[in-house]
Design a protein that fits this description.
GO terms for molecular function: NADP binding; oxidoreductase activity; proton-translocating NAD(P)+ transhydrogenase activity. By secondary structure, the chain is an alpha/beta fold. It is built from 13 helices and 19 strands. The structure holds nicotinamide-adenine-dinucleotide (NAD). The site of nicotinamide-adenine-dinucleotide (NAD) has 28 residues, from α6 and α7.
């Protein structure tokens, strides 16, 4: 079974879908890997290392895709999917991030073209699938980098320092939304010496906040029904969000850096910081909004931009994991390798829908959108 790794199409993308160590593992399992020339270069993996690991280097995208059963890339939706589709042939399987709940049209396009689609965001949150969970990998990187970006843009140093020029108070960092990214941001800001506080609607987050040495912020409002059966946050009512914004204003006014990560799969991110709250914040404060790509947790965030309003710097990173291409590719490639080892049997993809992981990630198969959630969204 031939697997193609193409050079990423997304503008400015630095990552690659498999690294040489993944190639070794997959070739030992009997798979053939074709890597488009230069695909790993920006992530620090040159063609020679892929060859040493057992891959074949393809001169261009067409050669990489020829006779491939499976195609791997990071971005499988929007303009990138439109650019890739004419190069794919019926019966091929595309494995990529597709943002299927926000944009189920990608699954329909794949079905119409006779391409089998595997959307990596749909890996279920079960223990067996943890090693295949690219969302967690990307969130780990984003949380870490958010703390560093906050430290870089802050007008203050993070740690307390006793110097000959006097004592410097530690910076105060507040994390809103403590899933994988938020917890990593807490831990990183703590390691840098800041005083770290955090808040999440899920009661279970409290213990995790304490476990990395941060302080949970308690609001006297209770969210109901905070978690879906799939382990994701549930969308809260407009009334709850309004109460939350009000209760949060005092906490925000004391912070030097705020990192927001609150996300609801397939929905616009909840607004946790309004312009009115922002006006109460300290001049020179910094907001890193990790929900920028899904609408932003701050009302004034602009995705992919750094803007300053009322003296507060608001940064809305896009495609953030690509700022750490080497480790991000290692994590993504390892997640994909684990998924492929599950799905490949006797030189073919084994579409065993009795397996919860395979069933959940498959969005299109044999010309049909097969995922029930997406069928419902598509109407
Ligand atoms: P996420 O990216 O979906 O959302 C980020 C966080 O924002 C969540 O913790 C959520 O509760 C929070 N949030 C949503 N609305 C909010 C609001 N109005 N105010 C404040 N916070 C709000 O989260 P995630 O990183 O996917 O993690 C969610 C949970 O799932 C975590 O406990 C994580 O450890 C767990 N998880 C489990 C697995 C697995 O078992 N395989 C994999 C990944 C994550």
């Amino acid at each position: 079974m031939k697997i193609a790794v193409i050079k990423e199409i997304y503008p400015g993308e630095t990552r690659v879908a498999l690294i040489p160590a993944n190639v070794s593992k997959l070739t030992q399992a009997g798979l053939t890997i074709a890597v488009e020339r230069g695909a790993g270069e920006a992530a620090g993996f040159d063609d020679e290392r892929y060859v040493e690991a057992g891959a074949v280097i393809a001169a261009d995208r067409t050669e990489a895709l020829k006779d491939a059963e499976v195609v791997l890339t990071h971005h499988g939706r929007g303009d990138e999917l439109d650019a890739l589709l004419p190069h794919l042939t019926r019966g091929q399987t595309l494995v990529a991030m597709m943002d299927p709940l926000a944009g189920p049209q990608a699954a329909q396009k794949l079905a119409d073209a006779g391409i089998n689609g595997v959307a990596l965001e749909l890996v279920p949150r079960i223990t067996r699938a943890q090693a295949m969970d690219v969302l967690s990998s990307n969130a780990t990187i984003a949380g870490y980098k958010a703390a560093l970006l906050g430290a870089t843009h802050s007008h203050q140093l993070f740690p307390m320092m006793m110097t000959a020029a006097g004592t410097l108070k530690p910076a105060r960092v507040f994390i809103m939304g403590v899933g994988v990214a938020g917890l990593q941001a807490c831990a990183t800001a703590k390691r840098l010496g800041a005083v770290v506080e955090a808040y999440d609607i899920r009661p279970a987050a409290r213990e995790q906040i304490l476990s990395v040495g941060a302080r949970p912020v308690e609001l006297n409002i209770e969210a109901e029904d905070t978690e879906t059966s799939g382990g994701y946050a549930k969308e809260q009512s407009a009334e709850f969000i309004a109460k939350q914004q009000q209760a949060m204003a005092d906490v925000l006014a004391q912070q030097d850096v705020v990192i927001t990560t609150a996300a609801i799969p397939g929905r616009k991110a909840p607004v946790l910081i309004t312009e009115a709250q922002l006006m109460q914040m300290k001049p020179g404060a910094v907001i890193i909004d990790l929900a920028a790509e899904t609408g932003g947790n701050c009302e004034l965030t602009e995705a992919g931009q750094t803007v300053i309003h009322h003296g507060v710097t608001i940064i809305g990173p896009k495609n953030f994991a690509a700022t750490v291409p080497n480790h991000a590719s290692q994590m993504f490639g390892t997640n994909l390798t684990n998924l492929l080892m599950l799905m490949a049997k006797e030189g073919k993809i084994n579409w065993d829908f009795e397996d919860e992981i395979i069933r959940d990630v498959t969005v299109s198969k044999d010309g049909e959108v097969v995922n029930p959630r997406l069928r419902e969204l598509l109407g």
